[in-house]
């Protein structure tokens, strides 16, 4: 293969990837528009992703495909899986990211500097959409290390924000948890707000 052929192939691949992402964003917007996603929509999206994942170099498409396969593994989309999928679709349809990149949590109120994390006896809460896996998998990782995981409360020690948080997080479904945790931290409560990337470094 000549260098010109290689370049043409790569450019062709980029065009396909860009078209796929545009189509996925359109699907995501349509499905997330009414604030709900039903079983039929999830199954349609699963089929679309199955057809596209083979020719896709996009980590976003692969991650969403894995996530929807997990959600539909038992044939039923439960409430938690529906909410998680809706958050994921919402973050895709806000197109403020570079193709193939994890969204930058630039405006998120993360602790700076980020704290050293421990697990034994500590209570963790997860919000957003995670590369690590579904929220249940993240919670299991904490419990396996001696910690506790649950909803956000005044007893929460660490709030972990998923990597696919967009700059429009304040308007997203998980923004309330982040704002509440920020308020408590400003009041002097010992709650840490960290990114998924920081959390996974301590696993």
TrEMBL record:
Source organism, top-level taxon: Bacteria
Gene3D superfamilies in the cross-refs: BRCT domain
Protein name: BRCT domain-containing protein
Organism: Caulobacter segnis
């Amino acid at each position: 293969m000549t260098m010109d052929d290689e370049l043409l192939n790569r450019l062709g691949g980029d065009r396909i990837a860009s078209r796929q992402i545009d189509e996925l964003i359109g699907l995501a917007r349509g499905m997330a528009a009414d604030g709900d996603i039903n079983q039929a929509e999830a199954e349609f999206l699963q089929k679309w992703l199955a057809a596209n994942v083979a020719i896709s170099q996009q980590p976003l498409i692969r991650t969403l495909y894995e996530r929807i396969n997990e959600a539909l593994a038992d044939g039923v989309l439960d409430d938690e899986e529906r909410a998680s999928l809706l958050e994921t679709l919402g973050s895709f349809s806000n197109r403020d990211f570079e193709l193939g990149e994890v969204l930058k949590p630039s405006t998120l109120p993360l602790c700076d500097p980020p704290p050293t994390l421990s697990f034994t006896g500590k209570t963790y809460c997860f919000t957003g959409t995670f590369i690590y896996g579904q929220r249940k998998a993240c919670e299991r990782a904490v419990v396996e290390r001696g910690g506790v995981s649950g909803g956000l409360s005044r007893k929460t020690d660490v709030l972990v924000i998923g990597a696919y948080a967009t700059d429009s997080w304040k308007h997203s479904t998980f923004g309330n948890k982040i704002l509440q945790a920020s308020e408590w931290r400003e009041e002097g409560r010992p709650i840490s707000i960290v990114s998924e990337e920081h959390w996974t470094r301590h696993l």
